[in-house]
């Protein structure tokens, strides 16, 4: 790499339309100067002497091409006139093969870390630390190091579902918060409806092809109430590598009645999206139409544990990936519920995975109390269906009213 | 015979845990006599235990039970490692046929009052559809098809059948989580003794451990306690597999599941580690069991939590990794104690600028 050749722009490559023979006139005027042919070198000293009065720029590169990069920065060279003057040799010597221009400079003398004294390094490090951690950077950095050491030695606690509060708070929430605040500009309403302590079941509509609405709900609830929403995920979540370990670390557990009741009895704030894949995988044309609410398992879990059900309507998530198509055959082969086609997704490749920046509204409805019912109410299917319908209707009506209030999708 | 005390028969005393339990239960006040049974004599000291060389796979065991007037049988001869038993076929025969013969002998013994079977939480399996914590009345989401888990499922089936046929006998089924301890040799301990741990890429299993001391404790407790039923036995809390590897300071190599299986079968054939195939799903998804019944019905409180049991196991192991920890510790030594400078800065804001420099030198 030491003797890698540096190609200054516009001096060597063939200009013009690329016929490879004769440069276009526009390109000729732009090109600084061709490489002088050996034959053409002879008159150059004479010309040099003759042109000593002209700016040094013209003469120097011909004589000493290694100084060629200097031309642009030469104070004597007026930007306006240099191309014109320089173009002269090009016309005279059109073709050029090898010349000293090929090896103008190497990178040996350009080591960027060369001449910086260690004092400057220290100062720069301190400045950077102050930028990142503020004025109290030393204790902050020490605390951060202590955190890193705790992580590296495994000296932290996870709860029985695998929820890692520290890493959730420090990394997951910190990574998702800018998306929630800056990209989707989430507006939260009715946050008082979430009880400050004790078990509660947040029931939400589900949309957006990829369950980003769940993540955004988690961040919004944590930022507004300080509580962690514990989502219940489909078993597909826990069979996918990486996703499964992240989901457990983030506080999710399997959507089954055992885990739901166990979490609610433990006083956790549990989030459930009863529409499931029918909800997130519905086509764009059916946006904001609630799908069937499962079998009402979430209601019987709430009835058995006597916790309130907080309905949540999310507006905006439908538009992040407008689902216009599906590849059912491929989905069946891969064992996933659907392969989404959005206006951008397979078309733009990974760029199509960037969600559209729709404006989101989250409205938490009034809690539906279940502690009036006795413990056996969860086994009464008619009651379960009625409460399920009540929750579903509440969310649907809230969705409609939010859609009426919304100015546009993106504002 | 009244007032004499219990006569306890312990199977599987040739192995370390069985021998230790037999010795320990012999010292219990209500126990007058302990008979240890196995096909090979125990290697260590068995104290007051009288050893009877008998194979539980043949009807001789019935004669032993009848002759000695045994009233408590503790079945500990369920083997999880095919390597130590001399192959998978022998292991299955010892586990399943041995249990069948033992239970048949027990059924014919009129004096029998109590049967304790050491089972394992492996019966719950491990899959992505598992609930976070299994309670005793839950079934595995996927029935085990092979290996230790299937053996144990069959053994438990026979034990339940025995409990139906002999309702006068108290049957205690103890489903122990992975037993761990400095001297324990099991698939999971041999896995953690590997210098580099192969893990399944993209999954992090939840693990629960039971210290060997607590296993012996719960067995002793159930010999004396007047309870019956099925109980999950595990230490408190959960360790993630990644966390466990970090606590041991062992480097882990994430690789796809099939590759972990291949490495495991290679290690088994090379006799480096007794890595059983059903361990792969356990190391992928993990398992947690609910121990409420253990506390409330059985009345047993384990002395070690999962983390403490694992730390006790890890004490004996040499560390093979931990370089990043040492680097971080080195950096941290250059920096002040967290907390102290902040307190001072709050008291005197003017010292903020001076503080770091002075502390750096100190």
Description:
Chain A: Residues 1-12 have a biased composition (Low complexity). Chain A: One of its GO terms (molecular function) is acyltransferase activity. The complex is a heterodimer of chains A (411) and B (362). Chain A is built from 16 helices and 9 strands. Chain A is an alpha/beta fold and 411 residues long. Chain A folds into 3 domains: 25-108, no CATH class; 118-153, no CATH class; 165-320 and 355-405, 3-Layer(aba) Sandwich (Glycerol-3-phosphate (1)-acyltransferase), CATH 3.40.1130. Chain A is globular, with a radius of gyration of 34 Å. Chain B is built from 15 helices and 13 strands. Chain B has helices at 16-26, 60-68, 82-85, 88-108, 147-165, 187-192, 212-224, 241-248, 257-269, 278-285, 292-298, 306-314, 323-334, 340-347, 354-361, and strands at 6-11, 31-38, 50-53, 72-75, 114-120, 170-176, 178-180, 197-200, 206-207, 209-211, 229-233, 239-240, 252-255. The longest helix of chain B has 21 residues, at 88-108. The termini of chain B are far apart. In chain B, 46% of the residues are buried. Residues 339-362 of chain B have low confidence and may be disordered.
Question: In a few lines, what is going on in this structure?
Answer:
The complex is a heterodimer of chains A (411) and B (362). With 411 residues, chain A is α/β, with parallel strands linked by helices. Helices cover 41% and strands 8% of the residues of chain A.
């Amino acid at each position: 790499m030491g003797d890698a050749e540096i190609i200054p722009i516009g001096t060597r490559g063939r200009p013009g339309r690329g016929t490879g023979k004769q440069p276009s006139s526009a390109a000729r005027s732009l090109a600084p100067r061709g490489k002088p042919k050996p034959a053409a070198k002879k008159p150059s000293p004479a010309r040099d002497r003759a042109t000593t009065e002209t700016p040094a720029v013209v003469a120097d590169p011909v004589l000493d091409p290694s100084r060629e990069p200097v031309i642009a920065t030469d104070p004597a060279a007026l930007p306006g006139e240099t191309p014109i003057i320089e173009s002269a040799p090009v016309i005279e010597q059109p073709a050029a093969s090898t010349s000293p221009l090929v090896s103008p400079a190497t990178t040996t003398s350009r080591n960027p870390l060369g001449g910086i004294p260690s004092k400057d390094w220290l100062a720069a490090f301190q400045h950077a630390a102050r930028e990142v951690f503020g004025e109290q950077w030393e204790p902050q950095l020490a605390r951060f190091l202590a955190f890193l050491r705790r992580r590296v030695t495994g000296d932290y606690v996870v709860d029985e579902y695998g929820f890692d509060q520290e890493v959730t708070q420090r990394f997951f929430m910190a990574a998702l918060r800018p998306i929630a605040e800056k990209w989707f500009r989430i507006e939260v309403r009715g946050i008082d409806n979430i009880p400050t302590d004790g078990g509660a079941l947040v029931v939400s509509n589900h949309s957006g092809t990829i369950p980003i609405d769940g993540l955004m709900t988690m961040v919004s609830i944590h930022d507004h109430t300080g509580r962690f929403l514990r989502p219940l995920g489909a078993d597909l979540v826990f069979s996918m590598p990486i996703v499964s370990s992240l989901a457990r670390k983030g506080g999710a557990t399997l959507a089954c009645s055992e885990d739901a009741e166990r979490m609610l009895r433990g006083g956790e704030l549990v989030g459930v999206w009863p529409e499931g894949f029918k909800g997130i995988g519905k086509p764009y044309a059916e946006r904001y139409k609630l799908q069937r609410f499962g079998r009402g398992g979430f209601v019987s879990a709430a009835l058995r544990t006597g916790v309130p059900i907080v309905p949540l309507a999310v507006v905006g998530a439908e538009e992040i990936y407008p689902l216009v198509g599906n590849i059912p055959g491929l989905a069946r082969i891969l064992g996933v519920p659907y392969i989404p086609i959005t206006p951008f997704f397979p078309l733009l490749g990974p760029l199509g995975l960037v969600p559209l920046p729709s404006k989101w509204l989250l409205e938490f409805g009034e809690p539906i109390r279940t502690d009036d019912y006795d413990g056996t109410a969860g086994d009464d299917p008619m009651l379960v269906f009625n409460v399920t319908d009540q929750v579903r209707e509440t969310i649907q009506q809230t969705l409609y009213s939010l859609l009426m209030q919304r100015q546009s999708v993106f504002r | 015979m009244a007032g004499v005390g219990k006569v306890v028969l312990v199977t599987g005393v040739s192995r370390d845990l069985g021998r230790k339990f037999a010795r320990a239960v012999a010292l219990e006040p209500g126990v007058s006599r302990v008979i240890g049974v196995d096909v090979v004599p125990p290697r260590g000291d068995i104290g007051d235990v009288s050893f009877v060389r008998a194979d539980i796979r043949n009807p001789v065991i019935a004669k032993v039970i009848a002759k000695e007037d045994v009233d408590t049988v503790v079945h500990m001869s369920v083997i999880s490692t095919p390597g130590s038993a001399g192959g998978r076929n022998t292991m299955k025969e010892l586990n399943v046929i041995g249990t069948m013969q033992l239970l048949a002998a027990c059924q014919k013994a009129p004096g029998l009052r109590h049967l304790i079977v050491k089972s394992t939480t492996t019966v719950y399996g491990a899959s992505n559809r598992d609930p976070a914590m299994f309670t005793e009345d839950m079934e595995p989401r996927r029935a085990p098809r092979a290996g230790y888990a299937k053996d144990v499922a069959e053994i438990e089936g026979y034990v339940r059948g025995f409990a139906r046929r002999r309702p006068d006998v108290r049957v205690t089924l103890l489903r122990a989580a992975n037993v761990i301890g400095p001297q324990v040799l099991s698939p999971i301990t041999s896995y953690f003794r590997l210098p580099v741990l192969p893990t399944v890429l993209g999954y992090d299993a939840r693990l629960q451990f039971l210290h060997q001391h607590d296993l012996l404790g719960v067995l002793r407790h159930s010999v004396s306690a007047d309870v019956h039923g099925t109980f999950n036995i595990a230490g408190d809390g959960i360790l993630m597999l990644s966390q466990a590897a970090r606590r041991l300071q062992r480097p882990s190599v994430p690789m796809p599941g099939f590759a972990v299986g291949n490495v495991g079968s290679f290690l088994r054939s090379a006799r480096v580690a007794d890595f059983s195939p059903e361990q792969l799903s356990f190391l992928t998804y993990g398992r947690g069991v609910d121990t409420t019944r253990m506390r409330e019905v059985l009345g047993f409180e384990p002395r070690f939590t999962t983390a403490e049991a694992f730390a006790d196991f890890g004490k004996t192991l040499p560390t093979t990794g931990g370089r990043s920890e040492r680097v971080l510790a080195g950096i941290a030594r250059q920096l002040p104690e967290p907390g102290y400078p902040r307190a001072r800065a709050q008291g005197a804001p003017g010292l903020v600028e001076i503080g770091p420099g002075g502390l750096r030198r100190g």
